[in-house]
Structure formats: C-alpha cells, structure tokens
Amino acid sequence: MAFRLIKDYDTTRNARYIAQQRADTETIEDGLNSLDDAIKTHKTSQTAHTSDQITHQGFSLRTYVESLYNRMRNLILNADGTNVKEVVDARVDTDGNIAPLLKERLDRDYMRLNKRIKRVVHVDDYGAVADGATDSSDAIVKAMGNGKVKIKLGPGVYVVRGVKLKSNVIFEGDGMDITTLILHDETPSDEWVITNADHQGGNKNIVIRDMTLDWNRERQNGTMKAMGGVKSSCLLLAQVKNAWVQRVRTVNPALHGIDISAPTYDISDSDYTKNGCDSIWIDGCICEGYGDDGITTHYSKNIFITNNRCLYPSGTAHALGKANSNGIEVDDGSKDVWLFNNYTEGNVRGVEVKAHAKWPAPSNVHVYGHQSFRDVRAYDLRHIGHHYANEPWSETARDVTLVDCTAKEPIFNDLYAGLEPKALVISAYQRVTVLGFTALGDPTYDYKGTPVIAFQYKSRKININGLNISGFAKAGSDVRIYGGDQRTDDVRISNFTIHDSAPEGISIGGGVYYVTLMNGIAHTRGGSIGISSPNNQADITAVRAVGYTNAAVLAGQKYSSVPTNIKGGFRAAARSGSPLTDTSAIIAGSGTIIAKGERNFIAGIAGGASTEGSRNGVMFSYNSHTKGASGSSVVMASKNVINTKEYSIALGHGDGNPSEGNKKIELDAIGGNVRATNRVESVSDLKDFAEYFESTDGHKIEASYLVALEGEKIRKADAGDKILGVVSKTAGLVLGGAAFDWKDRYLRDEFGGIIYREVYDGERVITVPAENPDYDPSEEYKPREERDEWHVIGLIGQVFVRIDSTVRVGDSVSAIKGIATKAESNGYGTVMKIEVPYDEEKGYGIAKMIVTPQH
C-alpha cells in the first residue's frame, strides 16, 4: 500500500489550505483502516503463512515436513520385513548426511538440538502448587532437568527449600509480588531462596526475573540468623558468568538481598576475581528489610546495577546499634562496576565502596544518577585498615567516579548509633572524580555541628566539579578537608555553589598543602567563615563568599572578601617563559624569559630576561638579568643591565650586550648606600642643604631663626656668635635624620665607621652591620623629625631668614636673638631678596639669602 500525501500546502488561500489538509487526513485514515482490516483477516485466516515462513525447533516447517515425508517414503519403499532398511535410514541426519553409526548420528543431533532448541516449561506441570503451603522444590528441580530451559512460574506463592539454578536457565515469574518464592519453614539459616547450582565449578547464562523472593526470616519462631560468609541471602550468584537479574524483589534476608560474589569472601589468590562473577546485570529490582546490604558485590567484575531500589534494612546481621547495613555496597575485590539510576532510602550508607583491611579495595567503580534519601551517609568510599598514619597505604583503592548523584537529607539512624550523617565521605581512596553532585539538607534538622562532606584518612587526588550544597543550617561546615597525620590532600573543587547552608563553607585542616578552589560561591545567612585554612597553601581563584562574618580566614588573617591565591610556578600574559620552580612567576613578557631560582619574579619584560639565585627579580625592563647565587638582587626600568649584587636594586641603560657596566643607579639595601653616575636633582622648589641638630634646652626653635652651636647642640644666635645656619623648612637634602632606628644601633670604629660582620641568612653567608648589644628592638622609637628638640638646620644654599629693619638686599648679616641684622663686616651670607618687609608689630621681616661654605 502506497500513500501519496501533499507535501507543500497552498497557504495563500485559506479554503484551498483546509481542503489539502482534509485530503491528506482522509488518505491516512483510509490507509489505517485498510491495515486494520488486513490484520484482522490475517488473524482469522487458515492460510496466513506458507510453510517456508514458519520455523519449528530451528528448522523451517517446509524443511521439517519434507524430511519426515522423505524418510517415511524411504522406509516404505525399501521395507522387506527385516527392518534393516529402517536402521540404514536412521543413520541419515536431517541435512542428508550419512553417519557411519547410528550412535554417532544421535550424538550429533543431540548437540545440535541443545544449541537450537529451547524448552519452555511451567513448574505447575511438574507438580508445583503456588498455594503458599505446598513444597514445590522437587517440581522445580524436575522442570529444570539438565538446564537449557525456560522455566515459567505462575501467580501465587511457591514454597521452596532453596532453588539451585543450572547453566543456561531462564527462571521467570509473572511479576514482582505476583509470583513469590518463600523459604520453607524447615529451611536452615544458611540457605538462599535462589542461588546457582555449582559454586565451585561455576555456572553461566542464567536469567532470573519478574518475581519476589522472601527469605522468611520469621520461620522457626524468628530464630533465623545470618550464618556468615556468603550464606543466608535471598539471591546469591557465586562464580557465575553472564547473568541477568531483572525486576526481582527481595524481602527480609538475614544477610543480603542480592549478592554477586565468589564462593567465599576469604580470598588469598592474587587474581582475586578469578572465581568471582563476570558480566552480571541487575536491573529494576527492589530490596527491603535486609540484615546487611541490599545489593552487594565481592570479587566480581563487569557488574551492571541499574534502576534498583534498596530500602530500610533490618540490620539483624550485626550487633544492636552497630549495623553497617547499606543500600548498595561494592565490597572487597570488586572491579569494573557500574551503578546507574538507583535509589536508596533509610540505610546506614546509601552507596558504599569499601573493603576490609586484609582484602583489596574495589576499583574502577562508576556511580551515575543515584539518589540517596535519608541514608545516614549517602556515599562512602573507604578502605578499612588503611586510614591512620600508622597503617599501610592502600594500593588498590583507586578510580571511583560519581556523576549526577544526589544526597537528600542524610540523618542519624539507630541502626548505627552515633554515626554522623554525611552527604559524601572519601577515605583512603585516590583518583576520585565527582561531577555534578547535589547535597540537600533539612534546615531544621540538627546535624550536631558535623561536616556535610568529608575528605579524610589519607585520601588523595580528589576532583569535584559542579558541587551544589544547601539546607544544612545546623551542620558544622559544608566541606571539611581534614588535616593532621592522616590528612587528605590533592583536592580540587571547582564550579561550586553553597547556598543557605552551614555556618562554615569550606574548611581546610592543618598540614594540607595542595587544595584548589576555583569558580565558586558560598552564600549563606549568619555564617561565620566562608573559606578557612590554618595556612596560605590553598590555590584560590574566582571564589566569592557572602553572608559570613569573615569571607575567609587564612593563616590567621581575616578577609572581608576571598583572596585570589595561586601557588606553583606561574606564567600569565606572557608569550613565552619558564618559571622553573614552584615559587617563581612570570607576568607580561616576551622573548626568552627564565626564572631559575626560588621565589623569583619577572614582570613587564621585552627582549627576554633571566634570574638566578633566590628572591631575585627583573621588572619593566628590556633584555636584563640577575646573575649568580645571590639573593634579593633586582633590575628595574632598565635596558641591557645585569645585576650580580645581592640586596640591591639596579637601574640602567645601554646598548649592545647586557652588562653590569650599563648600571646607572644602584640602591644598596645592606649599607644604605645610593650610587649614581650622574647628578641627584631636586625638581621641586627646595633651596638648601641641611642637617639635624638638637636644641640645648630641648625646646623647639621656630623656622627661619639663625642658630649658633653650643658644643654639639644649637640655640638662637646672638651678637658676637658665629652663625651655624638657619632653622629651615626648604631643605632639599637633609642629613642626620636617624629616621629608622636609634643612632647607636650599630657599632662603629674609632673613626665613626660602621663595623660589619658575617652572618648566615638561611641560604648563604652575607656581610651586615654589627648590632650594638645595648640596642633593644622592643622599645618604641620616634624619628627625629617627630621630636621638638631636633631641628633641620640649613647650612648651604638658599634659605629664608627672619630680619630686622636694618637689612637690605646685598647685605650680610649678624644676629640678635636669632633675628638677622645688618653686619658691618664678616657677616653671614648675602641677602638676595626681601620676601616680606619688616613688620614692627611682628618684630621681623623675611629675606631670602644665599649661604656658601665660606660663611
């Protein structure tokens, strides 16, 4: 039947558009009606198919019928009463081949039938009765035979003493809670509702689906307990290859709901998955009331656990208050395990990836789209016996991934008394990746100050990308990265959002040095600290904290906003460059740039630069370098300059190859010396050269009074005095300020020169001034410029002087009570200009004078 529909409707005319749509709709309706009639006719027809179109036991019906017809004809045509011809014919197989012996032909056909023919049987046909009372164990054994069979179970409750499935068996009910298998009241505690038949030799190709398995824990007056090892579960697969467990509900086992395992949990073989299961798929199952775990794996690989629900364990396999009963547990020796879209509720741990001390930890485990609701610990990764500083490192706890997982309202649970609720805990594991993790708490629930997420116990190399946390108002911190002797480290958290949650956002413990926080916001109400660490080792980039008393507290310092903190060799805005140590940085440069030493800094460079030694730098320069093992050697604002001198800054300019000869200015930090190849110039309107002197009476002398010496101190000059200088406010160069410390801090020789000694500064021996043993650095020191008794006295140059009415331009002066008056001879200086004429009320005028060394 072919439909021809209008593809392009005419939208220019409404009537034509409607008519075209109606035509297409009628065509489709007619076609569907024709198909419906054809299907009904096909169902009732006596000749719907030819014999070529129908298969029977692996053959087309035509082939099967023609083979039987030809054999009957052969027997009839060749019969002579002795049956010899029948035996001859029996050696001919269905393909027309003749076997030498009848046995060989039978063996060959048997093998072919085993491969091609699938028996479908119903247990009720073998005596099973789904009445909840009749023991159907023998009927199931008979129905199974030697395997290679699909066994159907109908609605109702089948009582069994433990079903042992052989290889190549499909064991199928009519649905969860429609078909139920329950253990007989007299079944011992070490039995399973279903397991595979051969734990030691192994089985393969088993399908179990669409039923409920009830371990009947209350049988024998409720005395049934877990018997240890792999026993006492609803469903155990031990050493099975290729199995499917689909839509199976397990109820109240003493141990596990579903256990995918080796025949024993006690494995010593280095090939620890050799006797475990391989290629198992558990899908759409529900586990409830389990004494230990809902779904668990041991020593098995290639396990797929999808779309399951594990709810509210009983915890009866453990001591009261110590039940480590988990929803899904990937346990000892498991590897290559995938969990997709599962749900856990009311467990001690929703998903646990763990191992005991003596056995290898699960590896290559991947959890996708899981939701944990009100489990105590939603997700817990650990290797027991490898946590503490005195315990060995785990060599197998590796490679776990959590993608798009949710931890919703973790809570305390009496199954494991006192165990702190957590959304995620990682212990001992390395190479863990968490992508898109959401933790949602109950703001009213008392989490008793515990952290929501904990990285601890020697875990390493943890990558968290896309973390969302909210609602844990009564927790201690949202993320805790534990320090100490068994600290975690190498943790990277990026693209995180913490909103209306714990008082402290991300807390880093002592001794943790390799944490990276990137692209995140912590926003809460009434919080205390956004990001905290006892040191400054964390790399922090683009992180914001809002609503906390302190956005960050790092190394004891409080921050109102989270600082950007980047460590490690750093290069930015540079076309090339090699920071060769983890404490060197290169910023904004071109050319060959190499920072060789520790704590070196190169910035604003063209034409290349290099540094050696420690604490050295080149900045804002062209083709300049520091050389040698010295420390604190710097080149700034220079071209083609080399500096080899420690504790100094060099500035210079030159052509040709870089050299120390191109220095023009050198600032010596040790000696306090300034060297320059050209003039030192004051470009402001400062006038004179001056030096500090102390007044004789300790009182302040106002500006522009003339002073004379009395010993080594000064007073206002008077008649007959030799004038030293003038109290100046215009000095361009001032000596003797002692601005930084006590003038006698350093020892001097008899000629006033500073005495030096050699010291070790932690890296090398350097020469420094020898400190006076009388110097007390704890005493507060006030510079001379802040003390009234010390005065800046202009000695040479242009100075402003108070004058009386006798002074004129061109005069030299003497002094009366510090005020200049005209000198008849051998006077002081020369008056250049009367700036302010004499004012009798003030008692002085002001003149500008020039003072030379001759005076």
Automatic annotation (TrEMBL):
Q: Which domain of life is it from?
A: Bacteria
The protein's UniProt keywords, in alphabetical order, are:
Hydrolase
Q: Which InterPro entries match?
A: PbH1 (IPR006626), Pectin_lyas_fold (IPR012334), Pectin_lyase_fold/virulence (IPR011050), Peptidase_G2 (IPR021865), RHGA/B-epi-like_pectate_lyase (IPR024535)
Which residue numbers delimit the Peptidase G2 IMC autoproteolytic cleavage domain? 633-851
Molecular functions per Gene Ontology: hydrolase activity
Per the record, a Pfam family?
A: Pect-lyase_RHGA_epim
Q: Which residue numbers delimit the Rhamnogalacturonase A/B/Epimerase-like pectate lyase domain?
A: 121-322
* Descriptive protein name: Glycosyl hydrolase family 28-related protein
Please tell me the species this chain comes from. Bacillus halotolerans
